[in-house]
Amino acid sequence: MNANVAVDNTRAIPLWNDPTLPVTARVDALVDAMTLQEKTAQLYGVWVGASDQGGEVAPHQHEMEEVVDLDALLPTGLGQLTRPFGTLPVDPALGALSLARTQTRIAATNRFGIPALAHDECLAGFAAWGATAYPVPLSWGATFDPDTVRRMAAAIGRDMRGVGVHQGLAPVLDVVRDARWGRVEETIGEDPYLVGTIGTAYVQGLESAGIVATLKHFVGYSASRAGRNLAPSSVGPRERADVLLPPFEMAIREGGARSVMNAYTDTDGMPSAADEDLLTGLLRDTWGFDGTVVADYFAIAFLKTLHGIAADWADAAGTALHAGIDVELPNVKTYGGPLAEAVADGRIPEALVDRALRRVLTQKAMLGLLDKDWDPVPAALDGADLDDPAGLRGKVDLDRPENRQLAREIAQKAVVLLSNDGTLPLAGPRRIALLGPNADEPTAVLGCYSFPQHIGVRHPGTPLGIELPTLRDTLAAEFPDAEITFARGTGVDDGDLSGIHEAAQVAREADVAVVVLGDRAGLFGRGTSGEGCDVETLALPGAQQQLLDTLLEQGTPVVTVLLAGRPYALGRAVEESAAIVQSFFPGEEGTHAIAGVLSGRVNPSGRLPVSVPRGPGSQPATYLGARLAHASDVSNIDPTPAFAFGHGLSYTRFDWADLAMDAQEASTDGEFTLTCVVRNTGERSGTEVVQLYLHDPVAAVVQPVQRLVGYTRVELEPGHARRIRVTVPADLASFTGRDGRRVVEPGELEVRLAASSADPRLTARVTLTGAQRHVDHTRRLHATFEQEPLAGT
């Protein structure tokens, strides 16, 4: 330790290295001992790539930033290492060794011995070469199953923590407002309650493994005009409060998320990165968040270059720091020299630096990074010979069988059967025509933040690192006695019509035609779905609709399968397909799940997290609309979807009956209970998803016609039944009133127990009595579901 460090000489170790002391005391002592340059060094990251030879990481050259001189930076310390695994294809064991060696150097070079906090992407699994590619978040939403998502997140977190990563940049809690937006695949759905509950479960799982979960993008990113990435957002304060903010509120309050990432967009002229009312007033002062706020990549610089509200880099730094952004990512730009110089000459108060620094150091202390016995060697390398990098290659498995089994379970639960005339499940077909651009494409199951699609595409010739069986492969295994003939027909988006005739001929000669359509995930226009891959309409990309329409004319039953990142209008196929199977980028085990649904080995139980439009030009539209947002006599545009939010079919049948309520009235600060019986009247086991919607006929401000306030999955054997008991707090009827405060009003409510937003099965009415009541972020957030097996079933 450098002699210039002020320490208590009566102590064996400096205060900040002593884990027996309160974190506050340790952090205060460290802040007091630091120079200004050492303070600001903790507030930025450096984008690096781990070495595939096990050597130290190297700074990543990004087209938006100049090369960082790591040697010059390290003597004052370093706050974060950006994406050591998610930048280059690196064997996981050698990546862990590379990170450990770099952390050793970082700690040895700065005079306090502080290592960096390492973060990586984990949107659909750890974004590292060779790591399990799980289904994308839109598939998480389709499961309506927080428990399984929680288990998945815990597995992802264990893999990340095991190789030395501390923070994961997930989940995305943006609520879909316009399905033309390219990042729909990264979201959980179009309903804030579904997004909140599934997202909170993901946070709980990730945090349980010791990974700092990062909520993004706070807030309004998904509400950009015309579905364009980074376009301005024009939501009003009520939509922001009642639709966009609740998932973040829930994930902080119930999930324990320790980090939040700002949104790129501006709302009514105020960029999120500069919004003190949002990042400090609401997030910290009202909600009590005490973690770190990290900048979305380049967002602070964007205050100057894109938003035009900062004159120079120092101005951008001061604006963001004042608003409440603690850490600049991915690279040092504004929080380095420009910030230090502005503090030194009095333009920016040093107190703002200290405020952010305390949050950063507190998090590092809680992660054990300030402890005297901190060890840079992660658990995955315990007992390994670190002097033999070649011997480590292949020793760390990030795609273990238990991971793949979990990925398959989620994929199976997420497949949505949209329609079926009885053709499915396929009963021993002799000849199957397998058609379409995604039928024999391994990466058709992956989203844009999967490693192969995000990074691997930049390294042609590098193995994928994981097994990705195509649907052609898994159908051949699922139907070993069938003759399967493949024809591509057309590409995803090339518009090529030359192969459609061949596909039609193959279809005519088959017993059933399975046509596999959808997206190719990519970034910034390199795909049809993904970040920066926005679309003008929800028509199928390229010539896929022409292919589909031609196949529908051949006289052979057509089963339409979608592997996509967003919902698409399917034209005449909605009525004319024998069946439609929707899967949202289901991950590496996805084709096994789809093949199982087609054969009947898997009884589908997925439900739509987003509505499927009837026409390609009806956006923006979600089920969560006020009366004027629905079909009316005063407009010739009908936004009614082909398949509604929450919709999904099964291979068995369910009967809903015996609705009862404990009372017809409840106070505005009370609760009410209703019960019903759900029975499996079919011939095989299956899962029904009971959804609870609230309709408020008369309110002080315009309300959605209905909104989801609860749900539960009900698994039943044939002939068996369960009594579902739902206790509903009056708090769930709250909304943002005329004065901007959240209110529960007295009056009549309609409560719908439904199989989808368009399929209410049982409807009850209750009157809330008593005084109008204001509620806040401490209100009750959930209905309570109980399931009771009925005697004799």
Automatic annotation (TrEMBL):
InterPro entries for this protein: Cellulose_deg_GH3, Fn3-like, GH, Glyco_hydro_3_C, Glyco_hydro_3_C_sf, Glyco_hydro_3_N, Glyco_hydro_3_N_sf, Ig-like_fold
Keywords: Hydrolase
Similarity-based family: Belongs to the glycosyl hydrolase 3 family.
Record flagged with keyword Ubl conjugation: no
Signal peptide positions on this chain: none
Protein name: Glycoside hydrolase family 3 N-terminal domain-containing protein
Gene3D superfamilies documented for this protein: Glycoside hydrolase family 3 C-terminal domain (3.40.50.1700), Glycoside hydrolase, family 3, N-terminal domain (3.20.20.300), Immunoglobulins (2.60.40.10)
